[in-house]
Amino acid sequence: MGFPPRKSRPYAVLPWVKSGSLYFFILFVWARDQTNLLQPDTASILMKAATSYHEQQRWCRRLFLLMPDHRHALISFPSGGICRLRVEKLETRPNQKGGY
């Protein structure tokens, strides 16, 4: 029995959301049965990428938690930050140095 295919969701900030609000994300891997985010090399790259975004002040990371087939994140964005573009970057594969 296989898993149903993942669906892509559009990202948009609703007009009533205050600047600097905290967002909760769950980001799943596309190939659920083939990917384990807890493998040391994979986990290291993902954590470096999240730390890099935090240090560059692209977001304020409160929590970045890896699970075998998904990630949880509590993130706020700087005022005027573009949430959609940053989250779409998270859905791509980071390079070996931990950058997107």
Number of strands: 3
- Helical fraction: 10-25%
Low-confidence stretches: none
The biggest sheet amounts to:
3 strands, antiparallel
List the helices and strands in order. EHEEH
Distance between the termini: 34 Å
Describe this structure in words.
The chain is α+β, with helices and mostly antiparallel strands. The chain has a domain at 22-90. It contains 2 helices and 3 strands, in the order βαββα. It has helices at 40-55, 83-90, and strands at 22-28, 60-66, 70-76. The chain has a 3-stranded antiparallel sheet with strand order 1-3-2, with helices on one face. A hairpin with a 3-residue loop joins β2 (60-66) and β3.
SSE topology:
Layout: E1 22-28, H1 40-55, E2 60-66, E3 70-76, H2 83-90
Antiparallel strand pairs: 1-3, 2-3
What keywords describe this structure?
single chain; 100 residues; alpha+beta; 3-stranded antiparallel sheet; 3 strands
